[in-house]
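User: quick one - fold this with flavin-adenine dinucleotide bound?
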Amino acid sequence: MDILLPRTLDEALGMKSDHPEAVPIAGGTDLMVEMNLGHRRPPIALDVHRLPELRQWRCTDGTLFLGAGMTYVRIIRELPGFTALAQASRSVGSPQIRNRGTIGGNLGTASPAGDALPVMAACDAEVVLAASGGRTRALPWHQFLVGPKKTAIEPDELILGARWRVTRGPGSFSKVGRRNAMVIAIASLCLVLDEDRRAVRVALGSVGPTVLRVPQAEAFAAGALAEAGVWDDPAALLPPEVIEAFGERVAASARPIDDVRGTAAYRRHACGVLARRALRWAIEDRQAGPAGHGRPAGSWGARC
Ligand SMILES: Cc1cc2nc3c(=O)[nH]c(=O)nc-3n(C[C@H](O)[C@H](O)[C@H](O)COP(=O)(O)OP(=O)(O)OC[C@H]3O[C@@H](n4cnc5c(N)ncnc54)[C@H](O)[C@@H]3O)c2cc1C
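Assistant: Sure. Structure tokens for the protein plus flavin-adenine dinucleotide:
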């Protein structure tokens, strides 16, 4: 196997254009597993791990841009105010995996169980792609992730990163697995409240061919928060039966299958549990305010 070692993004894009069959490798925590198992043997690997252009993030004009080469460890250290993103990053693998694994790799693999993906879906992220000659395009997450382990990337393109409009409001990521750590999700969920638009956004992982949004349940929750006066008064409470009904709606929107990790019925049940918890946490976080629960000020109000 040939290994290409570009020093800059331009060089990498030139190499990808000359060798569209070259497979990018970032942290290698997915690709090397596939190679070790004999599932994949690329003729050429293109090492994107060192490219400085992919290893940056920036928060400008209300938008967060997360370079494809951002590792989970760096997200946890450098972006703790993006609560759901940091929680998802903390839940990935082990310290070694979090040290190597990247956002670009999670997107490139496009597993329905990828932990960063529900966060990006709930945040309405766009995936930014580049090809040589200065060509770039941005695809909404649902046009990029087109199926289990399938993306819309072209052979001459690389993932530059993902970007999304930063919203004000609490959010969380949680997942259910066979054990507490080092586990592939049986079901995962990201819920974010958008205080300014009075919207609730929910994305599910591991319970469909790709990450799913649940628009009907989102509209129900936003309406229920309005009806109970919670948007205007953080001390107002949501009746327990409404939280229950929200969980049922989220569970009904899942499209799970039976597999070695869990049955479809268990996964659907887990979605309901995760949804109810996430909504309760969000309401509690609103009651505590942006600096609540001992977190730094602005932790649910990360601004760009
Ligand atoms: C023990 C173990 C535990 C794990 N636990 C979890 C977990 O809990 N949650 C989770 O979500 N994942 C988990 N993973 C999977 C993996 O760590 C993540 O998916 C990680 O984000 C992959 O990133 P990477 O940089 O290592 O990707 P790589 O393996 O380098 O690449 C993965 C894919 O993305 C493509 N790619 C990478 N970068 C680019 C780019 N810039 N442009 C175009 N294509 C690109 C590659 O060609 C490849 O197809 C685990 C893996 C292992 C081995």
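One thing worth noting: The chain has a mean pLDDT of 95.
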